[in-house]
Amino acid sequence: MTRPVIEVEKLTKVYPGGTRAVDGISFHVEPGELLGFLGPNGAGKTTTIRILATLLVATSGMARVAGFDVTRQAAEVRRRLGLAMQTPTLDGFATGRENIELIGRMHRVARAELKRRTDELLELMGLTLVARKLAGTYSGGMRRRLDLACALVHRPQVLILDEPTEGLDPQSRLALWEELERISYDGTTMLLTTHYMEEADRLCNRVAIIDNGRIVVDGSPGDLKAGIGADTVTLQLEAHGPEEMARQQERIRALLSGFESLDAIAPEPFGVRLAIRDAGRAIPELMRRLDRDGQAVHVIGLTVGQPSLDDVFVKYTGRRIRTEAADQPIILGW
Amino acid sequence: MIRDFFYETWYLGLRTLRRFFRVPANWIGIILFPLIQLFVFSQLFKDIIQLPGFRSSGSGSYLAYLAPGQIAFTAFFAVAWSGSAILVEYRNGYMDKLRSTPIYRISILVGELAPLFIESAIMAGGILAMSVVLGATIKTGLIGAALILVLSGLFGMAWAGTSFVPALLTKSEQATGTLSLLFFPIAFMSTAFVPPALMPGWLQTVNSWNPITFLIEAIRPLMVSGYDWAAIGKALVAIAVLSVVLQSATLWSFRRLTA
Questions:
Q1: Contact B100/A54, CB-based, under 8 Å?
Q2: Which residues of A are less than 8 Å from B25 in CB distance?
Q3: DSSP sequence for A270-317
Q4: Any idea of the CA torsion for B230, B234, B236, B237, to the nearest 10 degrees?
């Protein structure tokens, strides 16, 4: 039996001032697995990662990376760890190549190997042409890729990524996803945090939904979605102005009251979103009910879909995940 | 163990130097002010050299008197804001990136401090060269010039603590910049502009303790007369005391910040 690469037991972090950022989290990541931490900003994802990366000391609980305790054997953990934080951290006055090489040297990658590995990573990340340019001149996507290259230079056993695609345009995000999939495929164990559903859905073998410093549920994206036990039916409505839209949404709510297949109903800007058990069989009845009051609702579209991780998140936390950009903490000095 | 420390400090130090020299504003900013003082004051106060108090300094012209002071000023300016760089990297997370690699934490600090020897020495060398161009002499020749650069470099490295301590404690660039102004009077009250004989009594007392004065008075004979080992010895002692006091404070502040 192989031992989990990341083991966390009842990990708690209370900041001075009393904020419980992490509140008794336990989880483990098996070799080669890619675990995603999904949660809103402030859920405790970054704090957990900083503890695992030996940058922050936990208040209580145990955390091991590659079999080593993060507090007592920090040096052993660091040797096996690749880390990329939320905002790319690069030396802007060094070239792309110099950035990678410095981190490689700090990890004691041998000279010849370092040269070869740097070339390889620059090529892999599509940075060969700008390798001699200062990193300070790079675009957002290039910075991300260079940061990732730095994290990979010593062939880490574990890769920890905090919001790896935060602030990227869709095209760069897609390119980075492909990169991460390749790295994961090569057998590197990964832990990443995200508040993008599509990201968790696409990349992760397993997702842990974290909210208010606790893991509320974890499992493979497929299992989590199956656990919802209902399909998602969206109705597009035609309405002139938001008041009429709200009126129609209310009307639908009234028309569907007592409909036994209905699990949940939520308004959307374009209409309503319904969670309906066994939607295939329930649709005719749904249509009959909507038709009962000929004029009041104008349905112009209907789609039936599998539930998404969005639905899973709503189910377990009672809230939608907010997708606004992560707020950078403001460090106040004097 | 010690080899690891040197290895890490070497590469981190090279990075610090690169970061400094790749931005021309860094070294132009440092060298400009002493250069202006050297040029303007040597003309403006040309005849001040005839005052009796200057005779004992051995300087033949006010330019010759002014030059050692401006070389010391340059070493002073080279490190006056040196703590900001480590602060920026603490803030943007680069320090965390380094801390997540298997290196000694102290290598990060020494990798910032040690290169200041080279930065200060080179900057001071620029002003030394300009002084010679303008007409000053170096009686002790190349060896003396090298000695001047070493003294300036050592002083710069030690004095950097005055910027690192406020930077690491306040975590604010503005505070670091403002607090460094507090140290400027120490430079201006030194013997850079007038010899102690022409100063009021209390200033003479201040200057018997002023580390910048010790540096200036070690450089001066190297330029105008010859080796004054007593003066050089005093400067080295002053720098050593400064190092012990400021560097322990820096180390303490650094440990506090990265705890």
A1: yes
A2: none
A3: TEEEEEETTHHHHHHHHHHHHHTTTTT--EEEEEEE---HHHHHHHHH
A4: 130
Burial A3-13 (b: 16+ CB within 10 A, else e): ebbbbbeebbb
What pTM value is reported for the model? 0.85
CB spacing of B93 vs A89 below 8 angstroms:
yes
Measured between beta carbons, the chain B residues lying within 8 angstroms of A333 are: 170-172, 175
**How many Cβ pairs closer than 8 A exist between chain A and B?**
65
Query: Pick from A87, A12, A7: which is nearest to A48 by CA?
Result: A12
CB neighbour list of residue A153: distance below 8 Å, 6 or more residues apart: A100, A101, A103, A104, A107, A109, A114, A117, A118, A121
Show the domains of chain A with their CATH numbers.
6-219 (3.40.50.300), 226-317 (3.30.70.260)
Nearest-by-Cβ selection for B93 from A85, A93, A94: A85
Contact A55 B22 (CB under 8 A): no
CB of A37 closer than 8 Å to CB of A45? yes
Query: At B110, which helix (H) or strand (E)?
Result: helix B105-113
Element at A61 (helix H, strand E):
strand A60-65
For chain A, which residues score pLDDT lower than 50? 323-329, 331, 333-334
CA distance A78 to chain B (A): 5
A150 vs B: CB within 8 A: yes
Question: What is the tens place of the pLDDT at every residue in B157-167?
Answer: 999 999 999 99
Write down the pLDDT at residue A328.
Answer: 47
Contact with chain A for residue B178, Cβ under 8 A: no
Which residue in chain A has the smallest CA separation from B88?
A: A91
Q: Which residues of chain B have pLDDT under 70?
A: none
DSSP H helical ranges for chain A: 45-52, 74-79, 96-106, 111-124, 140-152, 170-185, 197-203, 221-226, 241-255, 279-291, 309-317
Which residue of chain A comes nearest to B169, CA vs CA?
A333
Of B19, B99, B172, the CB nearest to A334: B172
Q: What confidence tens digit (pLDDT) does each residue in A166-201 have?
A: 877 888 888 888 888 988 888 899 999 988 888 888
Q: How many Å apart are CA B205 and CA B203, to the nearest integer?
A: 5
In angstroms, the separation between the Cα of residue B157 and the nearest Cα of chain A is: 22
What was the pLDDT predicted at A294? 66
Determine the distance from the C-alpha atom of residue A231 to the mean position of all C-alpha atoms in its chain, rounded to a whole number.
Answer: 23
Cross-strand pairs, A29 = A6
A334 lies within 8 A of chain B by CB: yes
